[in-house]
Write a structure and sequence with these properties.
Helix content: 40-55%
Shape: globular
Oligomer: single chain
Largest sheet: 6 strands, parallel
Radius of gyration: 19 Å
Bound molecules: farnesyl diphosphate
Structural class: alpha/beta
Distance between the termini: 14 Å
CATH superfamily: Decaprenyl diphosphate synthase-like
Length: 256
């Protein structure tokens, strides 16, 4: 595992989730098409995956297409379908060799092209035994849709209302074994969740950066992890350790 100055290896977030926002604005600033920005986002995505893996993150979830993104112009929607398919085709061997497990998170409905779903299923099958990092593509994903799908399946299964608690709801999420994100990073200066992992991020730390997604690099991810390590996560309790996270971080910085 890579030692990064200022990051305490013992408190690296287990699950990081990213909202990869700002590709369109990055392209517009350069007089390019929005789709050129998405294409440029592929490199930032790969950098983030490897940087996360290097520092010991075990789960990385990226918001690649939301249930609301169908409202974008059809040409952009088609481009994003094709881009994700090409990323899976081009990068599968490399990701697999690095021990990365790939998963799809979202609604596998008729709107997602069959060839893209086949690539997602192939990638998931090929990498299913990998243990290093689980890379989840939230695709045709909406937090509300996930909860609606969970409720429908609970009713179809005849789950009684008296047995519904948090554990029961989790069993009906798309990936019940996925731990909740510890850290959510959103790029491009927007301060919202946009229907991402609504149930799962109840206690996640949120970090927002003005950097546009194609410019997002390993260093930006490490900055977000440093910010995460400065936060005091209480989960509704009070902090009894007496040690402020900022002081803990200063101790780490002094020793690295
Ligand atoms: C949510 O904001 C952001 C997303 C769902 C990310 C979309 C990401 C891409 C289209 C690019 C994916 C890039 C690669 C390299 C695969 P929103 O814009 O849907 O929501 P908002 O309208 O609230 O801002």
């Amino acid at each position: 595992m890579k030692v990064v100055p200022g990051i305490d290896p013992a408190r690296v977030p287990k699950h990081v989730a990213c909202v990869m926002d700002g590709n369109g604005r990055w392209a517009q600033q350069r007089g390019l098409k929005r789709t050129d920005g998405h294409a440029a986002g592929e490199e930032a995505l790969l950098q983030s995956i490897y940087a996360a893996q290097d520092v010991g993150v075990e789960w990385l979830t990226v918001y690649a297409f939301s249930t609301e993104n169908w409202k974008r112009p059809i040409s952009e929607v088609r481009f994003l379908m094709r881009l994700n398919e090409m990323i899976l085709i081009r990068r599968l061997d490399e990701l697999n060799e690095r021990g990365i497990r790939i998963r799809f998170l979202g609604r596998q409905d008729h709107r997602v092209p069959g060839r893209l779903l086949r690539e997602f299923n192939r990638a998931a099958e090929v990498t299913k035994d990998n243990k290093s990092l689980t890379l989840t593509f939230a695709f045709n994903y909406g937090g509300r849709a996930e909860l609606i799908d969970a409720m429908k399946r609970m009713i179809d299964d005849g789950v009684s209302s008296s047995s519904i608690d948090e554990k029961q709801v989790r069993r009906y999420l798309y990936h019940p074994d996925m731990p909740d994100p510890d850290l959510v990073v959103r790029t491009s200066g927007e301060y919202r969740i946009s229907n991402f992992l609504l149930w799962e991020l109840a206690y996640s730390e949120l970090v927002f950066t003005d950097v546009l997604w194609p410019d997002f690099s390993a260093d930006h991810l490490y900055d977000a992890i440093r910010t995460f390590q400065e936060r005091d996560r209480r989960f509704g309790k009070i902090n009894t350790s007496g040690l402020k996270p900022r002081r803990a971080r200063a101790k780490v910085a002094a020793t690295t």
